[in-house]
Amino acid sequence: MTVLVSVKDLSLRMGSRLVLEDLSFDVKAGEIFGLIGPSGVGKSMAALAIMGLAPRATEVSGEILFEGENLLEKSDKAMCDIRGAKIAMIFQEPMTALNPLQSIGAQVAETVLLHSGKKNREANEVAVETLRRVGLDPDEIPPSRYPHELSGGQRQRVVIAIAVAMKPALIIADEPTTALDVTTQAKILALLKTLCAEDGAALILITHNAPVIRHMANRVLDLGAERQSRSAVANSLQADPSETNRTPNERRSDIVLSAQSVSCNYALARRSFIAPDRAFRAVDNVSFELRKGETVGLVGESGCGKSTLAQALLGLHPLHSGAIEIAGQIFPCRDAAEMRRLRRQIQIVFQDPYGSFNPRMKVGDIIAEPFHLYTERPPRAEQRDRAAKALTQVGLPAAAIDRYPHAFSGGERQRIAIARALVTRPSILVLDEPTSALDAHARDSVLALLARLSRDQQLAYLFITHDLSLIRNIADRVLVMKNGAIVEGAETEALFSDAQHPYTRELIDAALYLSADVA
C-alpha cells in the first residue's frame, strides 16, 4: 500500500508549554492506524494539526505530507477545499461540533453542497442516505430534527455522517464511539471498517479504549511510550475497573431518591393545522429507589431515554405523570427556599463537559456556579478555596482555577465537571457517562475517587453508562432501559450471571464481543 499521510518531526508549542515534540508516523491508504496515550498527551492536538485547525497561538513545526504535499504550507483557502472532501474528522464532543441552529439533515448536506457541486435536492438525498448508513433511520429520526432533540449517541452519529458524506481519503476519528452503547459501537466500528475496505479510506483512530484498538487497528502508536505492536499496546492499556477498591455498601433503608411511575413526553410537530397534538413518550412509567451510599447503574442503548430520565430527576424536564421525591420531599416543589435546598442535594455530571461550560469563564468560576443555590452565597474567598479543593479531589492542580476550559484536554474537562458537581457537597450524584472521555488510568483514578466518596460520605450515585464491564464493577444494582421503560432490574451479579430479558442478554453479548481477545 502507498503512504497516504506522512508526519515528520511534528512539534507543537503553546507559549512555554511543549504539547508535542518530534512526532513522526506514516499512514497507508486503506489502513486503520491507532493513536493512543493518556489524557492530555497531545493526541487531539496532533489530529487538529493535520486538519489545519491547531489554535492560532500554537507554534507548529515539522512536516505533514498528504498525497505528497505539505499541509503546513497550504493557505487557509486550500485547506478549506481539502477539509471535508479529502480529509474529514469525527470530533470527540458532538454537541460542540454541531450547529444548534441547523437541522441534522442540513448539516450533512452542507458538506455535499460545498464539495460536490450538487444541487440542494441531490445533496439532501445524499444526506438522508448517509444518515441511514450511520444508524439514523429517517423514518424514526427525521433529518429535520435539531441536535438538541437527539441523545448524545445520536448526535455522535450525526458527526460521523458529516465526516463520511464525501467518502474522503482520510478520516480522523477522535474517540468516535465514546458516547455510544456497546451495540451501537459495534455497528459504527463495522461501518468505519467498511469505509476503509470498500472506499480505500485510511482511518486514524484516536482512542483510549483498548478493545476498540484490538479489533480495529492494523498498527498503533502510543504517544505515552515507544511504538508497540497492536497486542502489546492493547494489553498495556487494559485496566480492570475492579481495581478502584470498590467494596459493596451495606444494604441501607435510607431512601434518598424515589421515582414513582415517572413518564416524560416530547411534543411532536402536528401533521396538519387541525390535527391533534402529538407526543413522543421518552420515559415510560419508570419506578425505582436510590438508597444512601448506594450505586445504581442505568444502562441501555442511545436514545432509550436514560438522559431524559436524568433530566427529570434533576427537575430539568417536566413530568407527564408520576412523582419524584428527594429525602422524602416532593421534587420539584413550589417553595423557593426548599427548592434551592433540594437542588443542592442532587447534582449531575454531564456526558459532554465542554458543552456544559461557559467558554468565557475561568475554571474557578465554573466550579463555583452551584453556589447560587445557597440562600446566602459564600464569600468570594471561600468559593475559590472550595473550588481549589474540589479540583485537587479530582486530580487537577489547584492553580488550574485561573485557566479557561479550552486549555484542558477532554479528560481533564470531565474531571472539572465532576469537581463542579461535588462543590455543594450533595447527597446524590447523577453521573451521565462521567468517564467516557477518560483514558484507562484517568478513568480508574476518577472511579477510585467516586468509590471513596461513596464509602466515606455515603454519597449515592445514579451511574448512567453504556460500558457494561465498568458498571459490573462499581454498581450495587443495575437497571436496564429500552424504549423508555425499565425492562429489567436486579442486583449486579445476579443480572450478569442470569439475565432474564432478551435485550439484557443482547447487551451483555455485545460487550463480550468488544472485549474479546484478538485471534
CATH topology label of the largest domain? Rossmann fold
User: How helix-rich are the residues, as a percent range?
Assistant: 25-40%
User: What is the beta-strand fraction?
Assistant: 15-25%
Strand arrangement, major sheet:
15-16-17-12-18-19
Question: Going by CATH, what is the homologous superfamily of the largest domain?
Answer: P-loop containing nucleotide triphosphate hydrolases
CATH architecture label name of the largest domain: 3-Layer(aba) Sandwich
Residue ranges: pLDDT <50 for 5 or more in a row? Answer: 226-251
Largest β sheet strand count, sense and barrel closure: 6 strands, mixed
CATH top-level class of the largest domain: Alpha Beta
